[in-house]
Hints:
Chain A is an alpha+beta fold. Chain A has helices spanning 36-53, 70-84; strands spanning 7-9, 17-22, 27-33, 59-65. Chain A has a four-stranded mixed β-sheet. In chain A, β3 (27-33), α1 and β4 (59-65) form a beta-alpha-beta unit. Chain B has two domains: 49-243, Glutaconate Coenzyme A-transferase (3-Layer(aba) Sandwich), CATH 3.40.1080; 254-507, Glutaconate Coenzyme A-transferase (3-Layer(aba) Sandwich), CATH 3.40.1080. A ten-stranded mixed β-sheet of chain B has the order 1-10-9-6-2-3-4-5-24-25, sandwiched between helices.
Amino acid sequence: MEIRKPASAGTLESSDAMVTVEPGTGIELSLTSSVMNQYGRQIKKTVLETLERLDVKDAKVTVVDKGALDCTIKARVECAVFRSCDKSENNIDWGGVIR
Amino acid sequence: MKNAVGRDIPDYLLTNGKEVYQGKNYMDGKYITKASPKTRRYEKPQESKVVATIADALRQCNCKDGCTFSFHHHLRNGDYVANMVIAAAVEELGIKDITVAATSLGSAHDVIADYIEQGIVTGIQTSGIRGRIGDVVSAGKLKTPAIIRSHGGRPRAIEAGEVHIDIAVIAAPTSDCVGNCRGIGGKHNCGSMGYAMMDAKYADYVIVVTDDLVEFPNMPASVKAIDVDAVVVVDSIGDPKKIASAAARISENPRDLMMAENVAKVIASTPYFKDGFSFQTGVGGPSLAANLFLEKYMDERNIKMGWAIGGICGPMVEMLKKGKVGKVIDVQDFDLDAVNSINQTPNHFEMSASQYANPANKGAFVNKLDFVVLAALEIDTDFNVNVLTGSDGVLRGAPGGHPDTAAGSKCCVIVTPLTRGRMATVCEHVVTVTTPGDCVDVLVTDYGIAVNPLRPDLIECLDNAGIPHVSIESLKEKAYSLVGRPDDLQWEDKVVAILEARDGTILDVVRKIKPYTVDQE
């Protein structure tokens, strides 16, 4: 998928994450987390894997994590990417790339 | 050298007879020589000890570079006094190389973090370490490692001369002109002044700071004029909103209540739950709510609580007034109901920190305790508890009376949710051991109860009462299955804090954390 415009998903509430994607060259990840020292590596891995699954090759991604579980982080990344190319309104590929 | 809880203590810390933790009651039967202060004689009668400013009092008390100040934390997060005194010492007298030996430090003392960063405050000895002080100490900015002690460990260390207090500062809600202090009767009351009592006895100089000078004699005094050098009257000793909350509310969170009910069930299943039993609980959500459910069992069996100790709050005072508890002995007050009750309600007494929890005296109250209900930031599969460092390795807690009551009581119950946000409370290895696992008996979580295998007698009690329980390993696995297994924290060699066991041996050290950054592989 191609990141066409800036979009974000999620909140800054405890146990959530705010994910913002913007057009970019290659994957450029910026991550801050309230559980950085224990889960930073896993969050990074989850974000990069989700982007790969969605076939996003070029994006500037900003994640502000407030202790979200992996499933939440995946969902926020997916939603931000879909919003960035106006595909979040209908015909979402449930069970396909979204799983 | 590895200690009895498996923590590696650097050999360079083991000087001057300092030992690593060897297990519960290791120091029993040993002797100590008590240290004594060098104090000034005031033979010539004095009409008044009131001096104009804190700076004047400090000069009178011979304040010089390298000074160790003591403070007590009854004004909690509303305290103005510690900051005022350190600021006067630094800004007006130009004092350097200061050690702050407080019974606890909180976010009220963030400005002290600036003096740490400037290299003026070079030593910290405390129970609680939070807010910016926790951050700067964790970042390795304090010149010497901070020394963290429990509420019982501190009076032990003072008596043993391991910390010598040059100037004790007493934040007094009321004082008379010669320094008889009380925690009540003034504008900003705190109730018990139990943590200040030992400091006043063992310090070379004692300064009372009050905002309510009352008529002589201010009786019954918590800190007495016989130990006081100077009295300073200031506009305000603290922020009343932060000194004592209106009333500690019993949680309405159903998860807390479920855990609290299980705590009460566990307690009621043991042979210690009989008429005249003794009890301490924290003021955290599920710990405090345990009171409520315990009362039901007491009524059912027609028994009363003999006595309760600790930090005291409204619900315990309520039980005292209803005659459901015989005596309340109080080292600190958490809400206005407790503040307004001490020495007023019959059988509500004040006690010193040493009387409360000191393992080196001849009979602290904790030693007679049947039950204590405590919280935890983390608990590991050896039942070791951490209440000092966050799961990210940063100092942000306090051992308080946790290790003392756990060690002294017959049945220590830890109550905590299995996870907090993404943090697994039940884990493989706690970041810092603040209470050794051999002192902890039962763990109650929202996903199940676990009993320490060291207590087969309690396992039998739960089985007989039909209370289901599981292994602590299975609780840990459950937690990790929810939040994922955390990576091990990365540390530098530098020790930023030494955690003393209550007996004075070294239980653990906290090193400087190496933060993870996303560019790191």
